[in-house]
């Protein structure tokens, strides 16, 4: 049996002020996986990542990285992890090249090898031309990419990305995902937390959703998306008629003169909808999902959890 | 991590600390040199010429070791407290905390960096002193060991201060209200033999007195306290403060949630 990249067993954390951030989290991430860890703000994601990277002391439970306990053998476990934190946490007065080389040094990697790696990753993340400028001069997107380059300096087997694309423009986000996908394809296990759910849907094969310190869903992305029973489509039409057709299992709403929303079961076919609209003289010019499918599921799961808690 | 990997990690911290000292040399090296020059001019030349001899040396010669040690102590303390607290404040201490590096390597790296600044500043002040008076080092090994031990004691104290500090004010309070008074009362400008009781006995509780006198013995060959006692006091502080600092790192006080 393959040793999991990450095995978390009944991890709990209660902070000094009494806040119970994790209430017994257990999950397994297989080697080579691209794993999404989602949850609303304050759900416990960052606490979990903090414990895995040894920045937060767990109250109880344990986690193993490729079979190495983070409590019993912290040093060996940390050697296997690369962390891209949510907040900028490098010395803004140092240069990106030095930041990367120093990080490698903390892992016991000599300067010669560290310099080669720093050049490689700074080039791959399109930061080489800024390698010898003070880091405070970098743009927000560059700073995020620098943290990825820094996390790669020990060439980790498990890369943890905590909201790495927050506040980053779409072009840079895409280039970051291209890089991380390449790292994953080369064998590195990736755990991602993000609030951009379309990223998680596109990139991740497995997913866990945390809310109120508990795992509320832990499955494959395909299985989760398959549970979505209702979808809402936005139809751009030539003109919205005064009376909309009535179809069983479909709720149609005219939003403005040229837009109709159609909320329907996934089992319902689209042909009958188009046929009904056509008989009412409506020409559909384009169509899209109202929200990302994962986003719709995420909202439902979190809201369901809150209703239960209430 | 293996021994060689620990050595690489240690070298990385020391290198980074020395680069920091050199990068901001106008804050780390020049101010103490200017301050001590003023001390030499005012206390050594202007006032000292009216005081006469102390333990067989001119007043200027007598205060030079004390002022050098004072520079070493305050700069070692200031370096580690501002550097480590700065790393905490800017959160880049996390770069070290998430690495496999053991805690003792982090502590030793910062202490070596702070001792290095203390030694550089001490050497600068000593060179400036030579413009005002003649000095011949009586016991070079004692001088060297007292510098390293004295700087280490206050590096460790500065580290503990930085671990507990929550804001920049917290690392300024201890030097202002504890370190400076203890230094002035630690026999930098006078021999404690001049004090009557109970002030002489009270002065013997001040650890800085032992550091200043150990260094003065190394340079001039005279001391107010037995030199063995001075070294024992410094060693006790090194061991005690190291244990406290390592315990704080191990528990993650002020560093890990």
Helical content band of chain A: 25-40%
Distance between the termini of chain A: 42 Å
**What's the order of the H and E elements of chain A?**
EEEHEEHEHHHEHEHEEHEEEHEH
Give helix and strand order of chain B, one letter per element, not per position: HHHHHHHHHHH
Keywords (chain A): ATP-binding, Nucleotide-binding, Transport
Domain ABC transporter (chain A): 6-237
Pfam families (chain A): ABC_tran
Protein name (chain A): ABC-2 type transport system ATP-binding protein
Which SSEs are present, and which pair or pack?
The complex is a heterodimer of chains A (310) and B (257).
Chain A: E1 6-14, E2 20-29, E3 34-38, H1 45-52, E4 60-65, E5 68-69, H2 74-79, E6 81-84, H3 96-106, H4 111-124, H5 140-151, E7 158-162, H6 170-185, E8 189-193, H7 197-203, E9 206-211, E10 214-220, H8 221-226, E11 230-237, E12 250-256, E13 259-265, H9 270-279, E14 284-289, H10 293-309
Parallel strand pairs in A: 3-8, 3-9, 6-7, 7-8
Antiparallel strand pairs in A: 1-2, 1-4, 4-5, 9-10, 11-13, 11-14, 12-13
Helix pairs in contact in A: 3-4, 3-5, 4-5
Chain B: H1 3-23, H2 25-28, H3 30-51, H4 59-89, H5 93-97, H6 103-129, H7 140-164, H8 168-184, H9 199-203, H10 207-220, H11 227-251
């Amino acid at each position: 049996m393959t040793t999991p990249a990450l095995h978390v067993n009944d991890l709990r954390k209660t902070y000094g002020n009494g806040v119970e951030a994790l209430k017994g989290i257990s999950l397994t991430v297989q080697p080579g996986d691209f794993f999404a860890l989602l949850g609303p703000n304050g759900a416990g994601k960052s606490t979990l990542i903090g414990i895995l990277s040894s920045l937060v002391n767990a109250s109880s439970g344990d986690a193993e990285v490729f079979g190495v306990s983070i409590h019993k053998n912290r040093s060996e476990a940390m050697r296997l992890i690369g962390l891209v934190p949510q907040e900028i946490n490098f010395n803004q007065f140092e240069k990106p090249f030095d930041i990367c080389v120093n990080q490698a040094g903390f892992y016991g990697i000599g300067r010669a090898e560290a310099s080669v790696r720093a050049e490689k990753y700074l080039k791959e993340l399109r930061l080489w031309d800024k390698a010898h400028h003070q880091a405070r001069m970098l743009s927000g997107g560059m700073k995020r990419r620098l943290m990825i380059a820094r996390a790669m300096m020990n060439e980790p087997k498990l890369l943890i990305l905590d909201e790495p694309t927050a506040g980053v423009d779409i072009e840079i986000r895409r280039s970051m995902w291209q890089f991380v996908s390449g790292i994953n394809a080369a064998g590195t296990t990736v755990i991602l937390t993000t609030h951009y759910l379309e990223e998680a849907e596109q990139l991740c094969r497995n997913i866990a959703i945390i809310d109120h310190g508990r795992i509320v869903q832990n499955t494959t992305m395909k299985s989760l998306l398959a549970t979505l029973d209702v979808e809402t489509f936005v139809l751009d039409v030539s003109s919205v008629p005064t009376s909309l057709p009535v179809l069983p299992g479909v709720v149609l709403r005219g939003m403005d003169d040229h837009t109709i929303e159609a909320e329907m079961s996934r089992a319902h076919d689209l042909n009958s909808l188009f046929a009904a609209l056509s008989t009412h003289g409506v020409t559909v010019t384009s169509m899209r999902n109202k929200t990302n499918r994962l986003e719709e599921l995420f909202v439902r799961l979190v809201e369901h959890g809150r209703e239960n808690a209430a | 991590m293996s021994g060689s990997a620990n050595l690489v990690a240690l070298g990385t911290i020391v290198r980074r600390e020395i680069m920091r000292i050199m990068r901001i040399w106008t804050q780390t090296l020049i101010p103490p040199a200017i301050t001590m020059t003023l001390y030499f001019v005012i206390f050594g030349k202007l006032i000292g010429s009216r005081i006469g001899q102390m333990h067989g040396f001119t007043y200027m010669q007598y205060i030079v070791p004390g002022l050098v040690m004072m520079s070493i102590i305050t700069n070692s303390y200031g370096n580690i407290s501002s550097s480590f607290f700065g790393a905490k404040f800017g959160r880049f201490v996390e770069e070290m905390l998430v690495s496999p590096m053991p805690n003792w390597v982090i502590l030793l790296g910062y202490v070596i960096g702070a001792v290095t600044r203390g030694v550089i500043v001490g050497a600068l002040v000593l060179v400036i002193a030579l413009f005002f008076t003649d000095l011949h080092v009586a016991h070079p090994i004692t001088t060297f060991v007292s510098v390293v031990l004295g700087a280490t004691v206050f590096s460790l104290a500065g580290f503990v201060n930085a671990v507990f500090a929550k804001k920049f004010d917290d690392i300024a309070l201890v030097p202002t209200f504890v370190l400076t008074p203890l230094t002035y009362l630690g026999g930098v400008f006078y021999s404690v033999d001049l004090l009557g009781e109970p002030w002489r006995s009270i002065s013997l509780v001040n650890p800085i007195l032992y550091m200043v006198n150990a260094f003065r013995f190394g340079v001039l060959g005279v001391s107010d306290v037995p030199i063995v006692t001075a070294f024992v006091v410094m060693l006790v502080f090194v061991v005690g403060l190291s244990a406290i600092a390592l315990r704080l790192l191990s528990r993650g006080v002020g560093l890990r949630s």
